[in-house]
Design brief:
CATH superfamily of the largest domain: Glycogen Phosphorylase B
Radius of gyration: 21 Å
Number of domains: 2
Number of strands: 15
Shape: globular
CATH class of the largest domain: Alpha Beta
Structural class: alpha/beta
Largest sheet: 7 strands, parallel
């Protein structure tokens, strides 16, 4: 008899897959690769286009099946939020976020009936302004349902586990399982051509993120006003704007010359690898994070990293980067500038940080994460 782990893979084909989309793809691929004898993995996806179904099958070879719901994602979100939880298939279910059918079930008498969800951070509670009112309400409602009905909750760091305990005390249901660098993030055979197309300068700072207030990109832009960072440009990978703000306007308001801050937009893996590899310093100034995967990606390519002292980033970095105190946000840009300048002006330090970062990145593995997920379901 074969035991099937159903994984909700919907985020892979969401309008903006984002970090959770990448997490879902990488984890599911390794769940397939590490499936114990007698087990396999099937996907669950909301009603989508045939092209989306084909994309999932292409990205996840070896998937035992793809269960398709009758509702599209938006309608399914609302249905699951209000407790309408019918889902194709039965048995073990693993959600890579809070998008899950959470309702009362009998795991003891119905052998194998179990639901595990993932909470990536506590931003909805610590920085609610980062979300629209609709998304904020949805996250909080689904977290409440998880508290009532989930058999286990995966979090990426002990820092998130500690923060979550102050909101919902899941007790022993919490399991810390981190992420890792994507298997697709590799330097391509044509780095010079890609660098030229992206117009990468000889020296630049790189960050990944949005203008959401908790991401710290606005503070990083203001750090460029400090004399120790005179003239070095900042490139930002990710969406250019957020709620009417755009990078150019924020840079202009900070008094920076036109072109000093530039958006690279969304980057393909090969382009991101080149941009990370050639950056003088990767800066991750986020004020609230759950894991900080872009930081680990920079580590993997040997790029020195300056990051905030957010507890999750401190945990993941483990001293491989330079941490900057977030306290007193008014002077945070000054401290960022000082830390960045320290790396820029000390080639030996930058080289040492590069080696230490690569060593740190190697401690994270999607294979290891997948094996821990299988063990979690076995323990239940």
């Amino acid at each position: 008899m074969t035991t099937t782990l159903r994984v909700i893979v919907d985020q892979i084909v969401a309008p903006i897959p984002g970090g959770i989309g990448r997490y879902t793809e990488e984890l599911t691929r390794q769940l397939i690769a590490t499936a114990p004898l007698g087990c396999n993995v099937a996907g669950v996806v909301s009603a989508s286009s045939e092209a989306d179904y084909e994309l999932i099958q292409t990205l996840l070879p070896g998937l035992a099946g793809l269960h398709k719901t009758t509702l599209a994602r938006r309608e399914l979100e609302l249905a699951w939020q209000h407790g309408f939880t019918r889902l194709p298939g039965s048995g073990m279910l693993h959600a890579t976020g809070l998008f899950a059918p959470l309702a009362r079930h009998d795991r003891v008498n119905n052998q194998g009936e179990q639901v595990v969800v993932t909470i990536h951070d506590v931003v909805p509670w610590t920085n609610p302004e980062a979300l629209t009112s609709r998304r904020l309400g949805w996250y909080k409602a689904m977290a409440k349902r998880a508290y009532k009905y989930a058999d286990a909750v995966v979090v990426p760091t002990h820092a998130v586990a500690a923060g979550l305990k102050n909101i919902f005390d899941f007790g022993e249901r919490v399991r810390v399982i981190g992420g890792a660098v994507s298997s697709k993030l590799r330097l391509p055979v044509d780095p010079d051509e890609r660098a030229a197309r992206m117009e990468l300068p000889d020296r630049y700072l790189l960050s990944v993120g949005t203008l959401q207030t908790h991401k710290g990109v606005i503070e990083l832009i203001n750090a460029l006003k400090q004399p120790e960072l005179a003239d070095i440009p900042l490139l930002v990978a990710g969406p250019e704007g957020w709620q009417g703000l755009d990078l150019a306007a924020v840079a202009a308001e900070a008094g920076l010359e036109e072109g000093r801050v530039r958006s690279l937009g969304y980057l393909a893996d090969a382009d991101l690898a080149v941009a990370l590899d050639r950056a003088s310093v990767f800066v991750y100034p986020s004020l609230a994070e759950g894991f900080g995967l872009p930081m680990v990606e920079a580590f993997s390519l040997g790029t020195p990293v300056v990051h905030s002292d957010d507890p999750a980033l401190l945990e993941v970095s483990a001293g491989a980067g330079i941490a900057v105190a977030r306290a007193d946000r008014a002077t945070y840009p000054e401290r960022l500038a000082e830390a960045i300048a320290t790396v820029l002006n000390d080639p030996a330090l930058a080289e040492r940080m590069g080696y230490e970062g690569q060593d740190r990145a190697k401690t994270f593995s999607w294979k290891d994460s997948a094996e821990k997920v299988w063990q979690l379901h076995a323990d239940l």
